[in-house]
Design brief:
202 residues, 19% helix, 8 strands
Length: 202
């Protein structure tokens, strides 16, 4: 009798556990668009920066001069003042219109002065800049900005994300790829925001 009761209890436990296992499988993340840095790095208290560009309105077309089909220069950006405690800003430009785990990174610029309220057009593609800012590696493995060039007929969104940090990042530009920058920014983001533009390949 005791053996029968033990078997019954084991079957009941298995039945209870089965839905849990199925629920975990159902909750497993499915494949989808890559996750932008702004969605990986939570800003403290959810604070937002207002990010704009004199060159385009968010959601509009990116002018060809800022792409590889044109002059390939970086676009100008502007942002509102970060919250108290802001020590530096970081800018990442990412293409999320791709079928891969991570976005394509077109620009990394970090340790921007807390007094800065934007970036001018056509930032030099050098590892270090006036004022102490530095540039990391883009998708081509080079420092500085690289313009978009999606496949012919494909329209991709290009996000220019700005982060206000409570620290400077101690990273050598030669090692400052997306993974290193995102890892270094964790738990240091006070506020963030972005502006994006679309571009169709030719």
């Amino acid at each position: 009798m005791k053996t029968v009761m033990k078997i019954a209890a084991a079957l009941t436990l298995a039945a209870l556990c089965a839905p849990t296992a199925n629920a975990q499988n159902d909750a497993a993340p499915s494949s989808g668009p890559p996750v932008l840095a702004k969605n990986l790095l939570n800003a403290r208290f959810g604070t937002k920066l207002q990010v704009t560009s004199p060159a385009f309105t968010s959601g509009d077309r990116l002018d060809e001069r800022y792409t590889q089909n044109g002059a390939g220069m970086s676009p100008p950006l502007a942002w509102t003042k970060g919250p108290p405690g802001t020590i530096s800003y970081v800018v990442l430009a990412e293409d999320s219109g791709v079928n891969r785990p991570e976005p394509i990174v077109h620009w990394i610029i970090y340790n921007i002065s807390p007094a800065a309220r934007g970036l001018s057009q056509e930032i030099p593609t050098t590892a270090t800049l006036d004022g102490g800012a530095a540039q990391g590696k883009n998708i081509a493995g080079k420092v500085g900005y690289i313009g978009p060039k999606p496949p012919a007929g494909q329209t991709h969104p290009y996000h220019f994300e700005v982060f206000a940090l409570n620290a400077k990042l101690d990273i050598d530009p030669e090692k400052a790829d997306r993974a290193a920058i995102v890892s270094a920014m964790k738990n240091r983001v006070l506020a963030s925001g972005d502006v994006f533009a679309n571009y169709t390949g030719k």
